[in-house]
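Design job #97: recover the sequence.
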């Protein structure tokens, strides 16, 4: 039997500013919004619009939002990823598997290139990259693929590399999301409603072959089926539209919330299955924007408001269930066939 090769597992997500300060946020957003897969127009005019119009305002506004979710130990996004990495590493260590786990970000430290260089220095024979986007998109998983390819070329490292495209229908993932919904208090035997809210993408990406929308629908159906829900108990919305100059995948979450506030007297549970870890779009947007908006719409519709009307289901974050999801997704790839 041949000796097992050392496998480097690289978990990759979007990133976070170094601090909840305008300068740090501008620096982070500049990297993110300069990605060719993100920017909505040719590079030169976009550079001027981005640096002269968007970043000065967004840096200030977003810094205030980040300050609301920042912890004493730093970015919650960074903290959770580090704990998730250690949890997955512990799983492999317990099995004495020759696997080294690292975490990297597309647009902030630790960068993909730096962590690949570390895996190279540690003598990895193979690399398995897992973008932490259960539903892949050209603008997310596609960007990870770009950064990995460029980093490997720069390192001149011709290593056997596999990039996992998505895990939207992985059974362990589906069961974990369903269990988290139940754990949040959702009663499958009541009239509770469930809103799946996903990050939106430009319709132009869909027209160019992006299957993200199909994956979000498939994940929602599988999770609802795992819970035993019929179709009238759940719906889908899309949040985080970046600009109004382009058409984006809809219906928008804010519109779905308004409709539910006006026409449903059931408790509402909102879950965001495409976010592996809670971030600004969940920690801030839901508590400070969507929830108050929903309550205002309820009042306008003449409904009585109380805290039990709306529940957010947290992401899997650093939970043991999340570690098991990632282990399950990686299992077919980490050991040499």
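Job complete. Output follows.
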């Amino acid at each position: 039997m041949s000796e097992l090769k050392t496998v480097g597992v690289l978990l990759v997500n979007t990133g976070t500013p170094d601090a909840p300060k305008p300068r740090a946020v501008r620096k982070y957003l500049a990297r993110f919004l300069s990605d060719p897969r993100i920017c909505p127009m040719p590079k030169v005019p976009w550079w001027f619009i981005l640096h002269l119009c968007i970043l000065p305002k967004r840096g200030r506004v977003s810094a205030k939002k980040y300050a609301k979710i920042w912890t004493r130990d730093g970015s919650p996004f960074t903290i959770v990823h580090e704990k998730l990495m250690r949890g997955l590493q512990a799983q492999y260590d317990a099995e004495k598997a020759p696997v080294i786990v690292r975490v990297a970000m597309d647009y902030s430290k630790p960068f993909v290139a730096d962590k690949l260089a570390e895996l190279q220095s540690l003598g990895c024979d193979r690399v398995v990259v897992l973008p932490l986007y259960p539903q892949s998109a050209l603008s997310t998983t596609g960007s990870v693929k770009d950064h990995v390819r460029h980093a490997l070329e720069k390192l001149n490292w011709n290593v056997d590399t596999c990039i996992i495209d998505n895990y939207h229908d992985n059974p362990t993932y589906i069961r974990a999301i369903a269990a988290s919904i139940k754990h949040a208090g959702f009663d499958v035997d009541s009239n509770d409603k469930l809103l799946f809210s996903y990050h939106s993408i430009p319709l132009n990406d869909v027209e160019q072959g992006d299957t993200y929308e199909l994956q979000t629908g498939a994940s929602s159906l599988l999770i609802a089926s795992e819970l035993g829900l019929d179709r009238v108990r759940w719906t889908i919305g899309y949040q985080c539209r970046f600009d109004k100059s382009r058409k984006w995948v809809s219906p928008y979450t804010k519109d779905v919330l308004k409709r539910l506030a006006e026409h449903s007297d059931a408790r509402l549970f909102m879950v965001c299955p495409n976010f592996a870890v809670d971030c600004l779009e969940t920690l801030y947007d839901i508590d400070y924007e969507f929830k108050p908006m929903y309550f205002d719409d309820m009042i306008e519709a003449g409904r009585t408001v109380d805290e039990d009307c709306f529940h957010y289901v947290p992401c899997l974050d650093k939970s043991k269930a999340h570690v098991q999801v990632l282990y399950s997704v990686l299992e077919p790839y980490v050991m040499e066939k």
